Records
---
Amino acid sequence: MESFRSELINLVENNKVVQLNIDEAIGLSKIKPDAKDWLAFINNLFLWIGSIALGLSCIYFLAHNWSEISRFAKFALVETALVVSILVYVKTQVGSAASTATLLCSTLLLGALMALFGQTYQTGADPWQLFFYWAILMLPWTLIARFTSIWLIWLGLINLSMGLYCDVNLNHLSLLLGRKIDVVWLFLSFNTLALVLWHKQSISRPWMQKPWAIRIIAVTVGMLITGLAFSAIGDDKITDTLALPIWAVFLVSFYLFYRRVYVDLFMLAGICLSGSIIIVTFIAEKVLSFDNPAEFLFIALIIIGFGVLSAFWLKKVQVEAQL
Amino acid sequence: MTTKMNAFWDKLSDANLVQGDHPSSASLNSPWYVQLLLAISGWLGAIFLFVFSALILHPLLEEPIALFLMSLPLLFIAHRILLTPKNEFYQHMALAISLVGQALLIVSIVEWQSPELIYLVVAVLQLALIYFMPSLLHRIFSTVIAIFCVVASSTVAGAPHLLLFASLLIFPTAWLCLNEFRFINHYKMTKGIWVGLIITLLILNSSHVFLDDFQQLLPSNTQIMVLPDWFAYLIYIAAVVFVTWHLLSSNGISITTKSSKAALLFTLVFAIATVKAQGLGVGLIVVVLGFAHGNRALFGLGIFSLVVYSSSYYYLMQETLLFKSATLFAVAIFMLVSRMILNKTLPLIEEK
């Protein structure tokens, strides 16, 4: 249901609506859900909270240091729960909220099974393998579910397993790349690929078009490349790494895509923030010596100036986009 | 003016509900993330301004009276700037100046013997700033700091009841959110307060994640007023039930109807089940408040807090994993059974 919430607030803040008329204006703005909306909302809330809490309760139960329950009983418990959740999925209508919630619960239960397997048999496997196999085994129902949250969990698991892998295999990627690389570059490459693929696939798949999901991946990419550029300046390795040129390429690419191809104010605000952080850090580290108090004032004015310029530009884009 | 605003203006105009001319596009509100970006710029700028002021006025820094006297004009200047017509530059410059003024004022009293009094004075200062500073960001900031100062003051004074404060905050937060348009002549002020209250509420309920036991950060020689745990639990339960009661009455549903009684009973059982996992209850309240007024940012914040709380609940040291598992299991079964009952009594045709 499309509401006029921000429009109503705008009018209220500009004194265009008086107190006497506010109830009628609220009614016309459609910001309050009707009985049918409430019913659907409560129904979904019960379903999602119930399914996620069920999956988590199973993980917590197995994580408890049990000595009274046999190995067999533990496996029976988690495998039965997993089978039941899959049976419930089969019984529910395909594509319904209930079926997706059941798959999410199954995903959590699968994680519990992986953890129990590693814990029981002390396989000697590194922790990264647990998360990696979890991601691999849940892939079939990630593909079936066509549900944003399950895909994001999958991406999170792959990121986690990559991080843990690099923790214990400090130089394994050198076989591939010829020299030791920073794990952050690996995260950046993977998440950038995920962002590009997500955008590409979302053109023909409406369930992938949720702005918040794309934004989560984009924020991850933005934080990683900004962090790399920040470290390059902070660690005085501007000429030793390609962080700054690659950061600039990312910034320009994001700008071109989210301004020229597809206007997204959120992403543009992120570009402004990243740009401000890196430029101010560069000036603070490389231009100023901070032996004069006026330099602090200079930096303060630069920060505020960037903020203000960003605000003017974003406001201009916002107005254009809504015209 | 945007097409959507035009359409809404025409609707209200046809019903004779608006006054004056069309608002201009310059008065368009920025989305929350743009405001956040500006807030970060303002606050970061303030840190450097503060260092600059400290270096320039170094000889005076050891004179509390001088610091105090310097802080007042800065706060006054910030206030005057904020009174000028809406302009992002001035808004953030004023915020930075105000933060420097506040910092100088706090430094001027930091050597007082009584830390609880210092916290209280800062809380009172923030309350005054909520009233006087006509800026949404400033009001949010001041609300958060004011409440944390009250909690800190109480903790230092010997009454360390973080969760009790968190539960008590649910009452004003829910009331203000559900009465968002009750005082539209003071809309900007009340909005700043309730947004600040929600942020504080979520931080307090996840304090074990962010603050690693806030109470232990503050020195407290004696605990003069230790209330039993059940008292805090009762307040939490009462607060959760209050939210449902208020939600029902604000939607014009009589408390005596069957559905109202069922909703209140459901809330009571849910509150009891989550009494030792209050972050779940609070996250859910924020989600419901967001939905109740079509506030997507609030809705998203509630979901985010639920995700953060459920993933950090594992590390909460006060309870065993078995107890936490039982709590989650009880919540899960209760929710799923409630859904079944709901679907039996009020069937919903599920859309694909």
---
Amino acid sequence: MSGAFTGGRALTLTEKIIARAAGQGGVGPGDEVWARADRVIMNDSSGPRRIAHLVASLGGVHAPERAVIASDHFVPAATSRHAEILRLTRTWAQEQGIAAFHEYEGILHNLVLERWHVQPGMLLVGADSHTVSAGAAAAVAVAVGSTELATVLASGEVWLRVPESIRVDLEGALPPWVDARDVTMRILGDLGTDHALYRAVEYGGGWLDTATMEARLVLANQAIEMGAKNGIVEPAAPLLAALAAAGLASDQAPPRPDPGARYLARHAYDLGRLGPLVAAHPSPDNVYPVEDLRGAPIDMAWIGSCAGGRAADLRAAASVLRGQRARVPLLVTPATRAIYAEAAADGTLAALADAGATVLPPGCGACAGVHAGVQGPGDRVIATATRNFPGRMGSREAEVYLGSPFTVAASAIAGRIADPRAVAAGGQR
Amino acid sequence: MSRVLEGRAFVFGAGVTTDDILPGRYLDRSNDEVGAFAMSGIDPAFAGAVKPGDFVVAGPNFGAGSGRESAPYALLRAGVAAVVAPSFGRLFFRNAINIGLPALIVATATRIAPGHHLAVDLEAREVHDRDDGTRHAIANLTGISRAVLEAGGIVPFTRARLARAGGSV
């Protein structure tokens, strides 16, 4: 609960990485430390438009090579005000000599992993709550506000209070038509949106031996919906293989938690028993088996977001939609341009378009409530968005259901909430 | 920061999100423009009713959800002197401290009634309800976060820190 570091203590993965970044042998929960940020990440909403004057007043960017910027909220511009923000962001990135600037490339969080701006063991600080996604690469990724980000850019350092860690072990294999989003919805439904407040969530277990980078991203990403300071996924074979494929294999093994590390709580899940789930309005922890909500009317289906617009999501949706027809508008927003290109090349986009989907430009899209599919009063949408608090995707009087891409696609076909297992079997719509 | 703040309590329930505090449609506004929209997601009358120096008092997990810094800015620009709740969304809490808005962790905050006149003593770490005489302990305001608040926010704090270190920390 409290406690100064007493030496020789076994460390969780988060404690180990913060200790390294702080230049200390070890740290314990509750310790306040100054740590060097290996990467400082921001987007067009949280970044230059809010911090340029602050960074200038603090003497400029300390280490441009550690900064990453993606314009993902306002691309393509829906208003001239958006266009002004995009220009300001682009100009500032150039002026500061920040090479890792992405525009029309997709969502920051997906790009950080896709372009390997993150590596195992790093400390990332970012202005956007879903910064935690980079924990997929066995890094500590912590969100801060724009003002604080300006100070981290100027000084290179961030202060952190070392969080207690919650361990989640995932065992077994996912049944057909069940996705990583169902895993995180199960955890959120059980533990709630404040279970991990101020804490780290550390994922491990045998499922990680086969969980893709995309699945790892979902685990880390959704930790923020539990209130976590960071979500971190233990290194496993798919991460090491992805690093090797990118030419980034290291002689140094990625950090792992120490045996005997202390956790505030431990939770274990047998994924073989998991079925499709839906998080109903008004919170991502309001979770039901899809059977309980089957038949609930919807006006639209949306596939997108950093946690739901991955290539695997598009393929999962296409696998349900092939040869079928969406009865309600189905919007698809690939998370990045590379995902868009991959889905175009392998026939996924064609399958989605044949089923009646409208494919939109890569970016945050409607999930940020800014444009490209935002909801009005009375609208009901099922989406792979990151969260469904009132007003998240537009009007507070809209109802947002969250589901896996399988469930969203099946529901689009049925025109109401549907079980992807039944739709895939050609059964009850 | 002033040691004793005085004002009225505007009371909200549990789980107020940053979408409630500042809806996403205002994301394209600057931090200086958002005061008029404070709490407009759940109480459109708030920004017109709140007076400089008043307090927001709320249930657990105030400021959950999106990390938008414009949410605490909306309260600050609306004149809110401090936010009092049993717990906060982590990012809202950090953002509030960083812009110089005291976010005060008070376990008994839900016992404070709407409209009550409060005296918030940042030195004694106590909220005094002048209308019913109750006193409520403030659990935080220690360590680095206190130093940041006392400096007026993370920017002046960092400026001083950089100056001490000769431009680099």
